[in-house]
Each structure stands twice: as C-alpha cells, then as structure tokens.
Amino acid sequence: QVQLVESGGGLVQAGGSLRLSCAASGLRISSYAMGWFRQAPGKEREFVAWITWSGGSRDYGDSVKGRFAVSRDNAKNTVYLQMNSLKPEDTAVYYCAADRSGGRREYAFWGQGTQVTVSS
User: Fold this and answer.
1) Which residues are 22's β-sheet partners?
2) What distance in Å separates the CA atoms of residue 4 and residue 79, rounded to the nearest whole number?
3) What is the DSSP letter of 90?
4) Which pLDDT band holds residue 44 (cuts at 50, 70, 90)?
5) Which contacts qualify for 3-9: CB closer than 8 Å, 24 or more apart?
6) Pair 33, 24: CB distance under 8 Å
7) Do residues 15 and 86 make contact, with C-beta atoms less than 8 angstroms apart?
8) How confident is the model at residue 112 (pLDDT cuts 50, 70, 90)?
9) Residues forming a β-bridge with 1
10) Which residues pair with 119 in a beta bridge?
C-alpha cells in the first residue's frame, strides 16, 4: 500500500521559513516524479512545485518561484519543500504527490496534507 506522509507544517510569522517533508512508503520515489500542491479554504488546489525522478529538473508555480525550493533524497525515500519568505497568502494545506510522469496537474498518489499557517 502506497503512503505519502507530509510533515513539517505549522504556524509561522510572515517572512519566516518552514521545511516540509514527504516520506513515502510502498513505493520507491527514485522511479517517480514528485510534486507539491496546496489548497487554501474556498480555493482550488494550486500547483506549487515538482521535481523529476533524478532531481535534475524542477518547476515552480509563479506565486512561489524564487522563495520555495523542492528537493529529494531518494536514499531516504523523502522529498522536501523549503519555503522561505513566507507570506500570509501561502497559508494552505500542502500536499505531496507521486507520479511516473510528473507535471503540474495529474498525479497517481497523494498524501493527506499538512497545514501551513502564516500570520501577518
């Protein structure tokens, strides 16, 4: 059974940083592209970032480009999202996802999410 478990969320002041982790079990992430998405209350799910299976290529949503960084440690079967210069509008539930193809939309496997709240 595939499980993706996010951690590292919490409450932070604007301008602060958080690092989210996504630990996978039931699959080897070395064979998967990994993505991060977020959903704020009353809003649609938004693409945040994704990284290819090798880590050789990354892509970011416009709203986080230059502030967030996605990385992966295939040996630890874990993917990370470093979030810097956080803004109140970054407040959302953050989800990681795994897929053979990757991209900004469709993913085969999803985590349960971790809440990030940025206070002004």
Assistant:
1) 6, 79
2) 10
3) G
4) very high
5) 3/111, 4/96, 4/97, 4/98, 4/109, 4/110, 4/111, 4/112, 5/111, 5/112, 6/94, 6/95, 6/96, 6/111, 6/112, 6/113, 6/114, 7/114, 8/114, 9/94, 9/114, 9/115, 9/116
6) no
7) yes
8) very high
9) none
10) 13
